[in-house]
Each structure stands twice: as structure tokens, then as C-alpha cells.
Specification:
Chain lengths: ~230, ~90
């Protein structure tokens, strides 16, 4: 039994190997990129809009609302990063209804890469919002005694993000495999449906946690208000 | 018993124990969290979106404990480093 999609190798030449994780990840990336390109190429204003434009509007507005509810002002700044995380993980998990597909999020390398993105994005946005001084100061808050714990928390939550998504997706595939051995008639379908729900919840959790980490690093009261009003009035 | 038997038996037993004991704590924690969230929802249905979001984030946090246990038991069964080490040693002899 395979523990992750890394061990399913499609093509190998020397030290170059093309495993299922890479193939499915690139397939999803192509699908998402060309899908977005195709939909946004034919955006139309007005009352009656195309079906796929509706889907995109629902998604973008929903993600914007979530970002605002976490307490981050100016959601456009974070929409690109968090939205991409959510859409990639959600499509990767939802495509399990296609036979023969295995979610690339069920491999520890994919989830580690995603968690490292969050690991880098949190200081990035914090420095952007508060400057280097404010960012470094956030490690000695509320008191310098907390410095090692803050540093440790930074690493342990990255590990937790990666292992949480990996464990959830891997367990879904694993349970399906075991059920196919012992009760192959109805139960795999039921567990597959449950896996779809888990996949969506995990995509939501991953992006919400990334948001919460960014919001916690920036702090609620120190945010610049609207970018227009912060400029001195002439 | 030779080395491989001991390692196999210890791995299987501890994988089961890991999952069994490791599921108790998160199970109780999730039960309490859901009970608290239901009470809060019954008192303040207007705040349902905030409560639900916080509940899901909290549940994921609690659940990750059980997920760690699951990953460790899977490693013990399917990708055991000690097992691989012993197999490599006996093959080398």
C-alpha cells in the first residue's frame, strides 16, 4: 500500500522522475490558470452575466468577506494569496470524484510547500504593514520572556499546518483503500462523500488559519486605515 | 524471538495503542467544543457566522492531535524506519 502519491512514478530518466504529485499539481495549476484566464477574458458588466462569471464573483466576494471578518482591513492586499491557497486546495481535494485521480495534497511535499508559503507570507505582510521595527518588535510582545516561545510557535505552527492537511487527505485515501478490501459495495462511496466534505473543510481551515496568522502578526489596532485617507491631504 | 519479530510486534501493538489512546483526548475535546458552540448558537443565533467559523478553526486545531497520532501509527505500520534498518542489516550479512 502506498503512503503518498510521491511513490506512484509515471516516468523516470536518471535522477529525474515524474511522480503523480507533480503531474496532478501541474494539471491543477494549468486548469486553474487557464480557467481563470478564460473566465476573466469575457467579463461583462450588467444585470445578466455569464454562468462562470457568477461562480467567480461568488468566490471572490466570499473570500473578501471572510478576510474582513477576521479583522483585516483592505482585503484586496491578501485576496491574491489566501484566495489562491483556498482555490488550489479546494480543487485538489474536490477532484477526488474523478476516478484514477489522487489528491496531490495527500503528499507531505505539497503540503510542506504550501505551509512554507504561509511561513514566508506572514513576515512579508507584517513588514509591509508595520515596517521591520514593528515586525521584530512583535516577537518580544507582550514581554521579552516570550521571545523563545514566539520563535518556537512560528515553526511549530508551520509543521502543524503541513501535517494537518497531509494527515487528513492521506487518511481519506487510506480509509477508501481499506474499505475497498473489506466492504467494497456501498461503504467506499459513503466514505468518499465524507472525504469530499473533509476536503472542503480542510481547504477552508488552511486558508482561515493563514489569515488568522497574518492578522495576529499585524495586530488589530495598528493597521493603516484606508490607503486613500492615510495620504496627507493636499 | 529474533529482532524482526520483536520490532514487528512492537510496531503493530504501539500503532494500535497510539491510535486508541490518541483518539480519547481529541474526542472529548471536540465534544466539549461542539457542546459549547451549540449552547452559544441557541443563545445568540445572530452570531452564527462568527461562532461557526471559530468552531471550525478550533475543531481543526483539536483534530490535528488525532491526526498526528494517525500519521505516527501509519508510519509505524507502512514506513517503519527501524524495520527498514533491520531488513537492510540482515540483507547485508
Amino acid at each position: 500500500m502506498r503512503l503518498s502519491t510521491d511513490q506512484l512514478i509515471f516516468w523516470q530518466h536518471g535522477f529525474l522522475e515524474l511522480n503523480a504529485t507533480i503531474v496532478y499539481t501541474w494539471g491543477l495549476m494549468l486548469l486553474l490558470a487557464f480557467g481563470a484566464k478564460w473566465i476573466t477574458g469575457r467579463l461583462a458588466p450588467g444585470i445578466v452575466v455569464a454562468r462562470w462569471q457568477c461562480v467567480l464573483e461568488i468566490l471572490v466576494l466570499g473570500i473578501r468577506t471572510q478576510i474582513e471578518e477576521v479583522g483585516l482591513k483592505r482585503p484586496e492586499t491578501y485576496l491574491g494569496f489566501v484566495g489562491t491557497l483556498f482555490l488550489f486546495i479546494a480543487t485538489a481535494n474536490l477532484f477526488t470524484i474523478v476516478p484514477g485521480y489522487e489528491p496531490p495534497t495527500g503528499s507531505l511535499s505539497t503540503t510542506t510547500a504550501l505551509a512554507l508559503c504561509v511561513f514566508i507570507a506572514v513576515p512579508f505582510y507584517c513588514v509591509k504593514e508595520r515596517g521591520w521595527g514593528g515586525y521584530l518588535k512583535s516577537y518580544v510582545e507582550p514581554s521579552p520572556i516570550m521571545l523563545p516561545f514566539n520563535l518556537m510557535g512560528e515553526f511549530s505552527r508551520t509543521l502543524a499546518l503541513a501535517v494537518r492537511l497531509f494527515g487528513n487527505m492521506m487518511s481519506g485515501t487510506m480509509i477508501l483503500g481499506i474499505l475497498l478490501l473489506i466492504a467494497p459495495l456501498i461503504f467506499p462511496t459513503v466514505m468518499g462523500a465524507l472525504g469530499l466534505l473533509t476536503g472542503m473543510v480542510q481547504a477552508y481551515i488552511f486558508s482561515i488559519l493563514a489569515l488568522v496568522y497574518i492578522a495576529a502578526a499585524i495586530g488589530p489596532e495598528r493597521q493603516k486605515t484606508e490607503s486613500v485617507s492615510s495620504q496627507p491631504k493636499q | 524471538m529474533d529482532d524482526t519479530t520483536i520490532i514487528a510486534a512492537a510496531s503493530i501493538i504501539s500503532a494500535g495503542l497510539t491510535m486508541g489512546i490518541g483518539a480519547v483526548g481529541p474526542g472529548m475535546g471536540q465534544g466539549r467544543a461542539v457542546a459549547g458552540a451549540l449552547a452559544a448558537l441557541a443563545q445568540q443565533p445572530d452570531a452564527s457566522s462568527t461562532i461557526t467559523r471559530t468552531l471550525f478553526v478550533g475543531l481543526a486545531m483539536i483534530e490535528s492531535m488525532a491526526i498526528y497520532c494517525f500519521v505516527i501509527s501509519m508510519i509505524l505500520i507502512f514506513a517503519n524506519p527501524f524495520w527498514n534498518h533491520v531488513i537492510a542489516q540482515t540483507a547485508g550479512k
